[in-house]
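ok so I'm stuck.
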Amino acid sequence: MKRLFHLPRTRYQETVEADQSTTDKRIADVLPKAQPSLAPFQPILTPLSKPPSDTPVVANFDSSHLTIGAGVAIFHLATSRVVICRHSVKKLWFLPKGRRDASEETGAGAEREGYEESGYRNRLLPVRLLHRQPQAYNASVDKVSPFVTEPIWTQMVPQTRTSQYILFWYIAETVPPQVEEDLNAAMSEKTTAENPTPYQTPPKFPLDMTLAERVMLEQDCYTPQHHKNTAIDADEALYESYLLPVEEAMGRLKGTVMEDVVRSGWEAICSRHSMEAQVSTGNWSGI
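replied:
not stuck anymore, here's the structure
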């Protein structure tokens, strides 16, 4: 989430490094003592009702009175966990989000904000959603994938008395080990003292890959890499991030739209996995 004013990067880098040792000590108090079951595509067992959408509205804003933002729920498929953040001072739990950059695609902004606020590289994950967008017309394509990277929730919040904030929530996954390695190599060529962890745009999720094939790209007990010093301002330097079991994360986010972003996102992921299990690997996109 970007702020209007930024401290010099070297100062909030020092803040992160100074807080790191105490952050590690706080983890035992923040997280549950029991170890979660780290298996892929574990279903949600807690019965929950989906919050209703609000009544449609008519509103008009010119570019000087509208801010567009994007947020993301980043799932680690192999262990049925999701990345959530915690403000170490305000003690608030949340999903990473923020304003997209000028001329940046909204989905790409969600991926970037996910990295900057949580320290986890991620990419949008196509899932099966009910949505109202038409499929792109292409006469050369006979089959259309039922999986999309559309926002799963959208929020509209007044920013000031005259300005509107609109926030799109997306579903993403942590990147595979090889992608992580490739992006680390690319990042090392651009690292500077002022910017030790420059953002690298990840490749898109392959259209011909199933979720089961994606999980096979990781060895047992693999943990996605967490990058330090990815914050872009002093407040973000106070954020902590955790990979929590889906239902544990929902509990931390209880009573917010973010709770259902996680719930609905994980259900959509499990639905895709179930669909793919019913067909051969080479034909899943024709479901």
